[in-house]
Structures are given as C-alpha cells and as structure tokens.
C-alpha cells in the first residue's frame, strides 16, 4: 500500500512540475514577444499590446522636421561631458544595441540637470529632416530627478570611417539578450557633430511605453561613419528598427539661428 502511495505521489509531483515548466515557458514567450517592429506586434499595434502607454497620444515621436521656426532665444546646448565618464556595459535588448553609462555626464536644460543614462541606435533614422531620412540615428537619453527626458538625436551618414565607432564596435558582435561589461571611460562628445545647431520640439519616447513630456534636440549636422560600420549595426539589430513619423498635431518645431 505504501509503495502505491509513493508511486502516486511521485507521479503527481512530476505532472505538477511539467505544468509549471510549460506555464513558465509561455510566460517567457509572452515577455519576449512584448512588442517589435514588424507584424502583429509592430508599431501600429503598440497601443493595443501595452497596458499603460501613450503610444496613441497626440504628441508622439518621431516627426518630420519641417516648417520650423527660427527662434533667436535658443541657446547652445549646455553640455557637461567628461572624458572620464565610465561606459558601463553594452546590451542587445532585441530592439537595438544599447550602451549604458555610469553617473557623470549631464546637460542643463531650462535650469534643470538631466543625466545621460544610455545611447542606442535606429537603422534607418526615425526623424526626418525636411523629408530626408538618414541611414542611422543615435539617441542619447538624458533624465532628470522628476523622470522627465531630454533626448539628443545625432544623424549619421555614410562617409569616412569613425574612430569612436570603431571603439564602440570593438565590443560587438553581441547576441540578442546578451550584456557585456565594459567599465571603461568613454568621451561621448566624440560622437557629436562639430556644428551644434539643432531643432527642438516636444514629443515622446519612440518605443513603448511612448512616454510624452520628452524634449527632443535634433542636431542639424550629421556625423560620418563608414558603410561597413553601418552594415555591422544593421546586421546585429532588428531590420528597420524605426517607428514611422507621427502627426505634428499643431506642435511647433524650433530651430537655432546658428
């Protein structure tokens, strides 16, 4: 009798473990398929897929930067970037290649401090400048203590080889879901254009949850990277990891006079 009881108990535990394992697999599949840039989980479905988002809001990004107004009061960006700020790691999150910074670099916007958190890539670019889409766009994401964002956007065009990109890509390739520790100083200002004129407007993050109250600063001038450097990022990231342009809905795009 005891042997029968033990056998039934083992069978019950085995069946229970199998059920939990399958449930876990389904849970992980749901998480990994959260959102994408294609098909039924693509940008046109983000508002449906995500619970608490602004993806169907009125002030979304990216946009086509046209009909801008020159604003004489727009000042040069107050950047505080150091050669000693530590680049902590690089990750392939399945949506882009992202480099994360430790505390150090920041900018001042409207008397508030916004710390540089990370930068990542979109290929091709998300924002259009007077209808022109560049092959690559870099987003430098800054955040203040109130969880508001200022994002610097740097366009890249095909041209000469970029030494800063060589350093960044020395940590690649990296598999989807993988993170590599870097822990070395990196001067992000090397990836900025020499001319610092820019466009500015109020928008959102370009990925779920598409949070609004984001100040965008898009440099007018593009940096140059080689075709090979663009192709490496293209190979590692999802194909066309960009969101289509969103309606302006009356927003004003301002431009520096320089």
TrEMBL record:
Q: Provide the reaction this enzyme catalyses.
A: hydrogencarbonate + H(+) = CO2 + H2O
Q: Which domain of life is it from?
A: Bacteria
Q: Does this entry carry the keyword Metal-binding?
A: yes
Catalytic activity, EC: 4.2.1.1
Q: Where is the Alpha-carbonic anhydrase domain?
A: 33-257
Asked whether the keyword Metal-binding is assigned, the reply is: yes
Q: Which UniProt keywords apply?
A: Lyase, Metal-binding, Zinc
SUPFAM superfamilies, per this entry?
Carbonic anhydrase
Q: Which PANTHER family match?
A: CARBONIC ANHYDRASE (PTHR18952)
Family assignment from sequence similarity:
Belongs to the alpha-carbonic anhydrase family.
Q: What is this protein called?
A: carbonic anhydrase
For this protein's source organism, the top of the classification is:
Bacteria, Pseudomonadati, Bacteroidota, Flavobacteriia, Flavobacteriales
């Amino acid at each position: 009798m005891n042997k029968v009881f033990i056998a039934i108990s083992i069978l019950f535990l085995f069946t229970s473990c199998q059920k939990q394992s399958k449930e876990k697999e389904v849970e992980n599949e749901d998480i990994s398929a959260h959102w994408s840039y294609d098909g039924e989980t693509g940008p046109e479905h983000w508002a449906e897929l995500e619970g608490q988002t602004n993806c169907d809001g009125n002030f979304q990004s990216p946009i086509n930067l046209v009909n801008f107004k020159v604003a004489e009061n727009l000042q040069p960006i107050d950047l505080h970037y150091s050669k000693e700020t530590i680049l902590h790691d690089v990750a392939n999150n399945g949506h882009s290649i992202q480099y994360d910074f430790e505390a150090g670099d920041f900018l001042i916007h409207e008397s508030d401090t916004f710390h540089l958190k990370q930068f990542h890539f979109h290929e091709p670019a998300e924002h259009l400048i007077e209808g022109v889409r560049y092959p690559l766009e870099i987003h430098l994401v800054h955040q203040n203590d109130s969880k508001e964002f200022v994002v610097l956007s740097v366009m890249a065009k095909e041209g000469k080889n970029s030494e800063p990109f060589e350093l960044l890509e020395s940590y690649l390739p990296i598999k989807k879901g993988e993170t590599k520790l870097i822990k070395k100083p990196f001067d992000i200002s090397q990836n900025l254009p020499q001319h610092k004129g820019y466009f500015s407007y109020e928008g959102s993050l370009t990925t779920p949850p598409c949070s609004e109250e984001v100040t965008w600063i898009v440099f007018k001038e593009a940096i140059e990277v080689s075709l090979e450097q663009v192709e490496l990022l293209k190979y590692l990231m999802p194909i066309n990891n960009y969101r289509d342009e969103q309606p302006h809905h009356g927003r004003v795009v301002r431009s520096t006079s320089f």
